[in-house]
Each structure stands twice: as C-alpha cells, then as structure tokens.
Amino acid sequence: MKDTYKTITTPSTETLYKEKNSKFFGYAFPINNEDEVKPILESLKKQHHSARHWCYAWQLGTDQNISFRANDDGEPNNSAGMPIYGQIQSFELTNILIIVVRYFGGVKLGVGGLITAYKTTAQYALEGADIVEKTIDSEFGLYFEYKNMNKVMRIVKEKNLNIIDQKMELDCFIKISVRKKEAGKIKQIFDKLYGVTLKEL
C-alpha cells in the first residue's frame, strides 16, 4: 500500500519563460484546500495588474480522494490549464497550485506554442520548488480514564506515535496520527487494551 505523497512546503521562486515577446511568469504554491486558491490568485493579479492572463491548475488530496482543476483564463481551450496540470502529474505532486501569468507580446503563438509555453513555465516553477515526500496518515482518537494514562502513553512512546491534540482530565482524550500502513497494527494494539476506546476520526 502506497502511503506517501509528494508536495511542496513553501512557495517556489518566480520563474520566467519568453516566447515571441510574450512573457510567462510561473509560480507554485502549497495549498491544503480549494479556498486558498482565490486569495493567492488575487494577490498575483495585483502584482501583475497589466498582464493579460492568469492561468492555473491545482490538485488536492491523496489516494482515492483526489480533486483537481485547470483554468485557461481566456486562452484557447486546453492550451493553458491542462498543460500546467500535466506538469503537476508528471512531477507526481498533490496539494499544490501552479499559476502562470502571461503578458501578451503582440505576436500570437498559436495553440501549439501556447501549450509549450504554459507547460515549460510550469515545469520551470516546479524545478525551482522544494519538493518533499510526506506520509499519508490516519487519525485516531483515544478515549480513556486518567488511571489508564500510563498504559496508553507507554504505547504512544514505544510506537513513536504522533500526538496532534490531547485533553488530560478525569476523562482523557488523545488525538494521534499514524502512517496509513501502520494503522491496522496500532488499532489492534489499542483494541486489546482494557479501558481504552479507539475511534478513527
């Protein structure tokens, strides 16, 4: 079972591709949800207010829960957004947004020329980005009484589990994240522990 994915953690540096007086500026951004796209786009539109097109593509999610969008922003159909998205796929990335800003130089490039320009600019942006591999994690909630705390914490320590959140009172709650392929094993261990309830979140 594949339980890793590739993404970027910080925005890439600006890249530039020129073709027949047209300029294409490329940017890659890490995103965690679709709501982040619009503010990033708006800020680039302010920065490049005299540009002609702000084309983009993004992909979110891992495993079966992948969503994506490609936008030509007024360029001929599939000449901008899809070539950008193609680079996201060829670099095997997710949770990423790539925007290519075009200043028109007065000479039409034709659909083939546009596809090459948007694809190459997206490729430059990704080559200039810091690509990292992350694990796909499952999240669980552990519910138990305070008296069982030591038992639970011993397993958390032994198995090197990542604690995301915790509430320690008479009734305790710990939220942990576990690598997807380890999840079944961890679930079995806690299921055997008397007085501890494990729920997938």
From TrEMBL:
Q: Which GO terms describe its cellular component?
A: cytoplasm
A Pfam family annotated for this chain is Impact_N
The source's superkingdom equals: Bacteria
Which GO terms fall under biological process for this protein?
regulation of translational initiation
Q: Where is the Impact N-terminal domain?
A: 20-126
Q: Which family does it belong to?
A: Belongs to the IMPACT family.
**Name of the protein this chain belongs to:** Impact N-terminal domain-containing protein
Recorded source organism is: Zhouia amylolytica AD3
